[in-house]
Amino acid sequence: MKFFTVTLTAAALALPIGTAHAETLKIMAADLPPMVNSDGTGREAEVVTSVMQHCGYDVRFELQPFTRHWASFDNGEGDAVMTVPTGMPMAGTQSKAYVSYQNGVSFLADRGMTSPRLLT
Fold first, then answer.
1. Taking the model in full, what pTM does it have?
2. I need a surface site. Which of 12, 37, 48, 114 has the fewest CB within 10 A?
3. How does pLDDT run across 59-76, given as a tens digit for each residue?
4. Do residues 59 and 27 lie in contact, with contact meaning Cβ atoms separated by under 8 Å?
């Protein structure tokens, strides 16, 4: 009987296991190239996609103009929303910040400016 149990267990382990299909999450995102491009690629999109795949989910981004994606999520569209200011009151549970932006200005040296002036 012990031999039969071991043989049956070994045979069961040798059978091909079907591929599990990941659930696809619809993520509301702002159209902000190069962070999120219209085809769902981009710096921030790559971070979110990688993390969600690691957690067993596929993602499909729905891009909208910046701030409209928040309103759409609040109106019940999508499973998640990204690029939301920390602490902004939104439905659901917020993650910790995963990307931080700092605005800046660049200018061409041949424009005659010796130092950039702060815009106020």
1. 0.68
2. 114
3. 999 999 999 999 999 999
4. yes
